[in-house]
Amino acid sequence: MIKDVTDLHVYQRSMALILPMKRLVSLLPKNEYTMRDQCTKTMYRIPATIAEGWGKKHSEKEFKRFLEMALGSSDEIITHVRMVNICKFSRVKPETCDALIREYKIVSKELTNLIKKWKNFQ
């Protein structure tokens, strides 16, 4: 039974991705301020939005709305990591980007499933 937001696997996974994303951001050139900023904001936004939605879980509509926002952020960060990969920064390995994209695709899939099946989890 799910008693707390920390029991949600998608929340755990999104939290676990913060450190790998921070490492990626630290490898970006300092003059890539916008990309660094967007990646940083988005990586924190995903678990924070899931947690905010959890606080409104008694309203299925509200909870799902927050999950949908987290899904949008997850899809957004995939795009940011793809942009990093396309720019071919010398300190960033393509394999690092590929691994992060795979992980965030799982986050997006888990969020989609949770949105569809929330009543079954309660």
What this model shows, in words?
The protein is mainly alpha-helical and 122 residues long. It has one domain (5-121): de novo design (two linked rop proteins). The protein has five helices and no strands. The chain has helices at 9-16, 18-27, 33-54, 60-87, 94-121. The termini are close together. This is Four helix bundle protein. It comes from Candidatus Uhrbacteria bacterium RIFCSPLOWO2_01_FULL_47_24. Pfam families: 23S_rRNA_IVP.
Give keywords:
122 residues; mainly alpha; de novo design (two linked rop proteins); Four helix bundle protein
CATH C-level name: Mainly Alpha
Give, in order, the helices and strands.
HHHHH
What's the architecture in CATH terms? Up-down Bundle
Overall mean pLDDT stands at 95
Helix content: over 70%
Number of strands: 0
CATH topology descriptor = de novo design (two linked rop proteins)
Individual helix count: 5
* Computed Rg: 15 Å
Q: List the domain count as a whole number.
A: 1
Q: Report the biggest beta sheet as strand number plus sense, adding barrel if it closes.
A: none
| Beta-strand content estimate | under 5%
Structural class: mainly alpha
What is the H level of CATH, i.e. the homologous superfamily? 23S rRNA-intervening sequence
Per the principal axes of the C-alpha atoms, what is the gross shape?
elongated
End-to-end Cα distance, whole Å, is 8 Å
Pfam families: 23S_rRNA_IVP (PF05635)
Protein name: Four helix bundle protein
